[in-house]
Every structure is written in structure tokens, then in C-alpha cells.
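stage 2 :: seqdesign
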């Protein structure tokens, strides 16, 4: 009787293992598709950003949608106004500029009218990092953001 119960338990566990193997394979396929999508979007956005950087503008450029559901954050260059940034990035820039010192994402979120949830804080942190990478802001210490200090005699690196 114990042997039969043990045999049934082994069979049940084997069936569970087979089901988990199928679920694992499906999850791996989903992950692979998401990684490919992210790489493709990153490549397209980098190409669009490079094309934007190559275009010389006599005046402030108009914000431009690139058909991927979000506006691009162009690299900062002399003469480029914050009006080219998406609304939320302009709001972030204004809050950071008005602050007496560097701010963290969790301090910025309520000041731009968002609920202080983990998702909103992380999304704002990603925007802050993008603004740093594109030369609009500086990250003085990890997670602490301030207006970009501009050295008039030196070019800012495009990527950090």
C-alpha cells in the first residue's frame, strides 16, 4: 500500500515537472521575443536620435513624434530649448531647476502631479536617467539629479 502511494506521488510529481517544463519553455520564448523587441526599439531610437543630432536647426525645433508611442528626448545642444522635450520631461526640468539642490525621483514625482507609487517613481527615474544621458540634467551622486552645468568651452559627451 505504501509502495502504491509512493508510485502515485512519483507519477504526480512527474506530471507537474512536465507541466512546469512546458511553462518554462513558454516563458523563455516570451522573454526572447521581449529582448528582441527591446533591442530593435533601442536600435531604431538610437538611429532616430542620431538623425536628430545631425539636423542643424536655426531656431528651436518643434517636438516630433516618431511613431513609437513616445516622443524622443533629443540630445542637448547649444540653442536647443526645453520646449522640444515631451511635456513630462519639461515638467521634470522645471521642478529640478526650481529646487535648491539635487533631487531624487521620489521627491520629483509628487511635484509633477503623479502618485508616489513605485511604478511612477521608477518611470520618473528612467526619464531622469535619459535626461542625464542626453545632456539636459546632471546626476551629482547616484539617484540625485540637478540642472546640467554647462562648460561653455567644452563639448558635452553624447553618452555617459
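stage 2 :: out
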Amino acid at each position: 500500500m505504501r509502495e502504491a502511494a509512493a508510485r502515485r506521488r512519483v507519477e504526480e510529481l512527474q506530471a507537474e515537472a512536465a507541466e512546469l517544463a512546458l511553462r518554462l519553455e513558454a516563458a523563455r520564448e516570451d522573454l526572447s521575443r521581449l529582448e528582441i523587441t527591446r533591442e530593435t526599439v533601442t536600435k531604431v531610437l538610437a538611429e532616430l536620435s542620431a538623425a536628430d543630432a545631425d539636423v542643424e536647426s536655426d531656431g528651436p525645433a518643434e517636438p516630433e513624434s516618431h511613431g513609437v508611442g513616445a516622443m524622443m528626448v533629443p540630445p542637448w545642444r547649444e540653442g536647443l530649448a526645453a520646449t522640444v522635450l515631451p511635456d513630462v520631461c519639461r515638467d521634470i526640468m522645471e521642478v529640478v531647476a526650481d529646487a535648491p539642490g539635487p533631487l531624487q525621483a521620489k521627491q520629483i514625482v509628487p511635484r509633477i502631479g503623479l502618485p508616489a507609487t513605485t511604478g511612477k517613481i521608477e518611470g520618473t527615474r528612467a526619464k531622469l536617467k535619459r535626461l542625464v544621458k542626453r545632456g539636459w540634467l546632471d546626476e551629482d551622486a547616484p539617484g540625485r539629479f540637478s540642472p546640467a552645468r554647462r562648460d561653455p568651452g567644452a563639448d558635452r559627451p553624447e553618452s555617459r
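stage 3 :: structure notes
- The first helix runs from residue 2 to 54.
- Strands lie at 137-141, 144-147.
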